């Protein structure tokens, strides 16, 4: 039976990424060595790093004034690196979920944190609007996509102070105006590569504003100066990221990917809205994520939740159980997920409705 991978992360990757990594594990670039044992200083891997950074820039139309970094430590390490490098005394955060809340907590170690708005009052089921960002804050931090709750900021925000965004789970899902951001970051394990590498897009002149001493490994300039090679980078995940970047190019780039993502999300949300058994957890269609669709059983069918999960699993759906803080179901519909998987899930939803 074909498996349809809806896991939130680590998650589905393009088949060509998996195939090319498997080959490189056995023999990388004709060296006779595995990519897991090659020196990161070898000319073969340096070529991988250079090409990955270049394709990153080309796909997102990143201006020359920005640097692309591949680091370790996950996006969670960025929760600390950002205030350490950017906050002089005050920062502003939009709290839209669990990861945003964790970022707020870390920033509080370095100065005053203004939570400009939060959707916690309704279990993070909407994106706050109409808030004011303090003009004297050193930066404004947003989390563009919330995997647990199924909300997404789907347009670039106009901001008068440096804007920083966690795009862990929606990078490459839509075109982004990079020039509106001082820094964009994310863990790779949603839309790019296996867990282990973190991408950072940072504007050169946004750095160097703080007076504090910054530990070497936590200073963005360390990694800029050394081309992400100050210490041993996560070699295999960087190689995997390059394969996915090449795949994105072969698929027509980010504009084409955005079209597909909108179409896939529309198919699934239409069925969630139509099906008498289910209801979406995010009411406003404009706030719904095109990467992570979340839904629950309608109140009168609550006792059928386990039955539907078992039924869908039996039809090959993998990873659709909702996060424990929300319950219900979640389908992560990242770039690499084919529309056929959406169609299979919808068929399972319709069949279960018909039989019950």
CATH secondary-structure class of the largest domain: Alpha Beta
Strand content: 15-25%
Number of domains: 2
Spatial separation of the terminal alpha carbons: 24 Å
> How does the helix and strand content classify structurally?
alpha/beta
Helix content: 25-40%
Radius of gyration, taken over Cα atoms and rounded to an integer in Å:
21 Å
What is the 3D shape?
A: globular
Describe, in plain words, how this protein is organized in 3D.
The two termini are 24 Å apart. This protein is an alpha/beta fold and 356 residues long. It folds into two domains: 15-250, Aspartate Aminotransferase, domain 2; 252-355, Aspartate Aminotransferase, domain 1, CATH 3.90.1150.10. The chain is globular, with a radius of gyration of 21 Å. It is 35% helix and 17% strand. It contains nine helices and 14 strands.
């Amino acid at each position: 039976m074909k498996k349809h991978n809806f896991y939130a992360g680590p998650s589905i990757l393009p088949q060509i990424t998996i195939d090319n990594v498997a080959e490189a594990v056995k023999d990388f670039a004709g060296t006779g060595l595995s990519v897991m044992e090659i020196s990161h200083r070898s000319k073969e891997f340096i070529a991988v790093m250079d090409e990955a950074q270049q394709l990153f820039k080309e796909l997102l139309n990143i201006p020359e004034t920005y640097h692309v970094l591949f680091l370790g430590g996950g996006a969670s390490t960025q929760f600390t690196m950002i205030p350490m490098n950017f906050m002089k005394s005050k920062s502003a955060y939009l709290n839209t979920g669990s990861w945003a809340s964790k970022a707020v907590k870390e920033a509080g170690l370095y100065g005053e944190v203004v939570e400009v708005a939060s959707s916690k009052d309704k279990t993070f089921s909407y994106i706050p609007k109409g808030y004011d960002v303090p003009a004297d804050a050193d930066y404004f931090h947003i989390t563009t996509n919330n995997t647990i709750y199924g909300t997404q900021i789907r347009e670039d925000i106009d901001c008068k102070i440096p804007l920083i965004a966690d795009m862990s789970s929606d990078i490459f899902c839509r075109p982004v105006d990079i020039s509106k951001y001082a820094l964009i970051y994310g863990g790779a394990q949603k839309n790019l590569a296996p867990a282990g590498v973190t991408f950072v897009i940072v504007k050169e002149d946004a750095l160097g504003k703080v007076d504090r001493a910054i530990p070497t490994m936590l200073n963005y300039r360390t990694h800029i100066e050394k081309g992400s090679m100050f210490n041993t980078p996560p070699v295999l995940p960087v190689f995997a990221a390059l394969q996915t970047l090449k795949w994105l190019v072969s698929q027509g780039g980010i504009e084409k990917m955005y079209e597909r993502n909108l179409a896939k999300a529309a198919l699934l949300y239409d069925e969630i809205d139509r099906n008498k058994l289910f209801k979406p957890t995010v009411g406003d269609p404009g706030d719904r994520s095109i990467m992570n669709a979340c839904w629950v059983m309608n109140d009168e069918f609550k006792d059928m939740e386990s039955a539907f999960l078992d039924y869908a699993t039996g039809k090959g759906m993998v990873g659709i159980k909702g996060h424990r803080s929300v319950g219900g179901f979640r389908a992560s519909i990242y770039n690499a997920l084919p529309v056929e998987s959406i169609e299979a899930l919808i068929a399972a939803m319709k069949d279960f409705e018909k039989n019950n």
